[in-house]
Fold this sequence. Notes:
alpha/beta; CATH 2.40.50.140; 4 domains; 7-stranded mixed sheet; 7-stranded parallel sheet; 25 helices; 41% helix; 17% strand; binds adenosine-5'-diphosphate; binds magnesium ion
Amino acid sequence: MSLLETALTYLPGVGPKRAAVLASELGLYTYQDLLLYFPTKYVDRSRTYQIRELRGELPSIQLRGYIRDYKELGEGRKKRLVAYFTDGTGTIELTWFRSLATIRRLYPEGRMFLVFGKPVAFAGGYSITHPELDDAEKEQAVGSGLMPVYPLTEAVRRVGLASRQMRQLLYTLKELLRGQLTEPLPTSLLRSAQLMPYAEALEQIHFPETKELLEAARRRLKFDELLFIQLRLLGMKLERKKTSPGLLLPRVGEHFRSLYASLPFDLTEAQKRVLREIQADVVSGRQMNRLVQGDVGSGKTLVALFAMLLAVDNGHQACLMAPTEILARQHHASLAELLEPLGLEVGLLIGSTRRRERTRLHAALASGELPILVGTHALIEPSVHFHSLALCIIDEQHRFGVVQRSGLWAKNASWYPHILTMSATPIPRTLAMTLYGDLDISVIDELPPGRKPIQTYHVSEGELFRVYRFLEQQIAEGRQAYVVFPMIEEQEQSELRALQEGMMRYRERFPELEVVMVHGKMKPEEKDAQMQRFVSGEAQILLATTVIEVGVNVPNASVMVIEGANRFGLAQLHQLRGRVGRGASQSYCILVTGSKLGEEAQRRLQLMVETNDGFEIAEADMRFRGFGEIDGTRQSGQLLSLRIANPATDGAMVQYTRELAERILEADPELSQPEHAPLRRRLDELFRERPSWSQIS
Ligand code: ADP
Ligand code: MG
């Protein structure tokens, strides 16, 4: 076992208690994990601010001065310690909520300190909460002036590990590992890509000597991160192509043809292209594993349907898995409408399917009598057996992880069904390459002709009366409307109240109309019943929390009002907007917010007003929110957790490392050539199954 894999508990300064917290809070188990735990920012200590020059919004900064006196404020759990810190040009407050006695002892009044932290404007002055203080005399010890700040949680701080102690641990580790780190990249590559050596990059990222060296270190480490992910993803893809035979579905048969002939419109060029890509996959003799991306309404489901007919016409079965019951029902209804005229039965299997129906479905699937099944994850339960499952469509919507996908693969003894994943949220290309790099990717980048672009407006709450009037007009013309309220999990109770308050408001304003309400806390039957009243046209306004995000198709609905729109992510807003614009009439999306908005919120909403292009919005969303938030499922699948690279801003590097990985694996698929040995070793190191450290310590 290499030194890098030593459990952190053995690192001087850690010990069992801290090791346990580092593991559970930050996922750090070994020396290597800590070494690769990079700072998220650096405080520039080369510059010392004066208190009188503090103005506006500030980053973390450094001040130099002394504490004039202390005051304890508040009671019980709200108790806090406030220090009045001055440098002769002004005074600011330093505030602590914990370890009050210790703080007073460590930082006596009158002694000179360097203070680091982010000043927040407060009662006419500034305040820094939980600042870091260093003895001003020992200033020299700090080095370049760039001081790393590590992302830490409260629990980590509680065991005495703040950024400063993390730096200490990393220093100890760096000394321990001196001369022990192998360079994973071939020298030729270091030279051609102009990369800083690995050991040096690790040193500079934690202890930067200059800004330039830090930049070079970051570039090198991003490069490694992306390259090894690409090697891993492409490796998986190659491996699957080698070892996973796929059923051949060569025949384009009767059902496929009659559906094609019966459509009242032509497929778009993009749909045809993707269909050809799928057809090529299913005659290749290998398992298809393809992601189809496209904006809402681009016609993904229709493409998926044709793919299912390929399976059926070749004597096999197909299934479609949706993330929620409502969506499964809707898919089922629309597929049945198109397929039953062709004499094909479509089954529906969801959590609430009755026992008798369930038994019937199980039998019909096992005998092969039932060609197509739609369902939720109920359809991958072990009790479900197919006679001959050739294709599974996954309507992903970000909810199915790799694990559930693999459950499907075990549905046949001798082959893996072809897998087609449909992603309803367009993902920028470089992100898709990183998240789904082990899949083949198709893009439907064209909307069917004749769609009227949805008109989007941003209004403030004070103008709600105008929104009401507009709704009135639309409804008088026979249309229906959605009104969506934000729902955030931690605050379910108050959000629910907001929805109920909204319900009263709309009922009061529209006494002559039917207003229904659905939310995530309702029983499924009740939710469906309410939804059904809207779908049937009996109700004109549907108030909802985001449960409608993934579902419902009501072509007659022409208005989407989103209250508290600034609380939604861009991708989510775009999804919601996609609920309208499905019928012939002009549709509208109205984003309602308070009148005081931050600059970023303002820009995000403006973007929604300006564009209907899901890809453009996805790119922007990734920039605004950063990468981490985009796809939780896939990331937590352990396949990917990016520490330093960001596909949003490092797109060119994603592209470059992807091509490089392709070239390397093409020449040497197993990385068995001597020059690739360090690559191989590093890849194994990075993606090896973890031993269960929790059982050791
Ligand atoms: P997505 O799944 O991408 O949101 P769907 O497949 O559900 O899109 O299609 C949305 C609507 O557009 C459906 O009513 C579908 O019948 C219709 N549609 C699909 N392809 C075309 C096309 N080429 N021309 C016209 N309408 C189409
Ligand atoms: Mg769809």
